Model the fold of this input.
Amino acid sequence: MGKKPKTAIEPTRQEDYPKWYQQVIRAADLAEISPVRGCMVIKPWGWAIWEKMQQQLDVRFKETGHENAYFPLFIPVSFLEKEAEHVEGFAKECAVVTHHRLEPDPEGGLMPAGPLEEPLVVRPTSETIVGAMYSKWIQSYRDLPVLINQWANVVRWEMRTRMFLRTTEFLWQEGHTAHATEEEALEETRQMLDVYADFAENVMAMPVVKGEKTADERFPGAVSTLTIEAMMQDRKALQAGTSHFLGQNFARAQEITFQDQHGVEQFAWTTSWGVSTRLVGALLMTHSDDDGLVLPPRLAPRHVVILPISKSDEDRTRVLEYCDRLKKELEAQQYAGEPVRVLLDDRDIRGGEKKWYHVKRGVPLRAEVGLRDIESDSVFLGRRDTGESAAMGRQELVEGIGTLLDEVQSDLFSRALELRESNSSEIDNLDDFNSFFTPPGGDTSEIHGGFAWSFFNEDPKTTEILNQLKVTVRCIPLDEAEREGTCLFTGKPSRQLAVFAKAY
Done:
């Protein structure tokens, strides 16, 4: 038996995917668990990635006519009570503030004092508080549409947490809009889903399936929920973004009314939509390997890291001069409409240690420069996506940096798409469905399954079978032509072709 290849991350994906995920976060220095239960500290490199996501998304929101605002972190319990389905959906996850003051207790500690007249819920989502404000701002059809987004933190009291994917507190954006007609609101719901899909595929290099959630999976209080679903490397699905058509449900609860062109009072039609820091986890699980994080160039805080190599102070001075010139030349180039982002790492540490530091952090390109490289006016260039390294002329690198980064971006998307396509199957037999989602070795942690495309009907029997397999209906794809088939679970005629998967 051959010796196991040495990897920077242990265990590997195949050996223990959940532990591998945590180790990549640690090795890339993205975040760490905080002293506060269920919360995390996002470290500078992790924050830089989220910041890039924010920037890219914010541009897209503003291009579609949305403005940023901010709403309170605390929501009166009475606001949530106005929308029964909504409060029922979030009740178990709510953190509640009941007091406004601390006082010394008899044992020398502190105890809550000063009970609030009405308990306040720490924001799990903002539909109700936003609706209360919209009811004041909207009086006439001339006040519509209202197109607002906020960047904020959210608290949902999760019992089982995993960094970036599911934490008690997380960061997100939430869009909230109000419209005069149902058609406008439906158009907004689909438009924002398309914005998310474009971002996922063209910026994150993460292919997604656009679809509609079933009644059991839709957002509490929504008429319909649209979603983008991505396949991670362990073949599980991750819900990467959602857009909700709320109909007039929240408008009725929050009394968001307006006078139409004929002077008749109408309820507004509303939407909400959001993505969160779980996208950082999605990025990690889509592209990373057993040596650490792999970043698509359009989200990488640094496109290129330059690593000077020298054996003496004299050599170091000469090498650094060359590297500094190279840095400026690369920064003068453009990629994806922005200057190329370059880091010159001149720290006085061993070359091998420095190289692996950046490999584990996922920097797309590494340019190593020593005296011999200077003499040939070249660099030794390493690609993070392929692991390949080769000499390249300085001028060739400078002039071709944009094309090279595009190749890395495209390569990552193609690899992720190939993974999804090779692990997706249209299944019309229940035995085959059961086999697809059953690990061959019997260990539930074993990587198995993928996306199963099957006809179904929403029925208690369907739910029972899926629960036994720990599989969910991820979505009913939007872009599929309408077809007729037979429900895999009930044997009844069906026109609903859905994507099934185990999921995060």
The mean pLDDT is 96. The first helix runs from residue 17 to 27. Residues 299-412 form a domain with the Rossmann fold fold (CATH 3.40.50.800). The radius of gyration is 26 Å.
